[in-house]
Amino acid sequence: MSATKVTLRKRLYPSGKTALYLDFYPEIRNPHTNKMTRREYLGIYIITNPQTPTERKLNKAKMAQAEAIRAQRELAIINEQFGFLDKTKAKMDALDYFYSILRSHHEKWAIVYEHFKIYAQGKCRFEDLDVDFCNGFREYLSTAKRIKSDHLKLSQNSAASYWSTFRAFLLQAYKEGYLKENLNDKLEKLETKETRRQYLTLDEVRKLANTPCKFPVLKQASLFSCLTGLRISDILALEWENFQEYPGGGWCFNISTEKTDSETLNPISDEAFQLCGEPGKGKVFKGLTRQMVNGHLKEWISAAGITKYITFHCFRHTYATLLIAGGTDIYTVSKMLTHKNVATTQIYADLVSEKKRNAASVIKITDNPSPKDEK
Description:
Helix content: 40-55%
Oligomer: single chain
Number of strands: 6
Low-confidence stretches: 370-375
Mean pLDDT: 82
């Protein structure tokens, strides 16, 4: 085995601080976890652009401290003493680690990161993470304001969802050896509040289809969601390469949904496929952005004469309720929505049942009031 070289390196973070870390080349194997590692963050930060003699002196002292650790690590590797791999992870900055894994997860993780950063006051090492500290974050979420608002409080369901994401972060950190114990086993979930899911009727969908939109691609993507149930994140990521001919005829798409990270092969109607436009390469709905959805969806819906509060995600609810109302069995609907549990899909069946109960009282044969009406 070739000798491992240990190099002291710097990393500039968006926050403006510069972290010092060790780079092992070639990478070394942790004998306790059997995982290969290339880096060790020291938890030492220097001033990125020192302006005064004092700042330069402080940087020099920290560099000397880091260099001393580098020499220790090189000697330890020569002597095959790898105990430092376990000890140093606890000293690492949990916020830096959290930030480094955001890109590989749903965008909600970035929001949770911002809230956790506020709660931790910008500083948290893995050794600081215990049950009490984590439960403190749970309480913070229960009363916190939204990131982009000074007065709007997080809804109960948003807080519960963010807490669930934070626990997923803890689980990943535990699996990668940054935490000595799985804290999730000792943390209680935040309860969600039952809410009424808003959706469009078939007539309302047709109104939208007949109403001009300032951005045609927004209209196409919205109607496509009504016909397929895809989330906005998956529609933004949808590429022509995801489409293929379905074995039974027609077209289908094969994607890995961002939220559930599950593979799905769903057939689509000819009408839905036509909304995608002329087949080509790359993104299907070129030019579609989240800013467009957030800024112009409301005015298009209003122009169609629809007064309900409709977000893009409501198109997914629309797809589900229209399928069930049309007689599709709940198991099939669950598969089309890529739900992991049929119980989640049952909510839409309950919505349709309520609609049927209300419809039962619409048709009256006589004008005579019932005894109940006379009271």
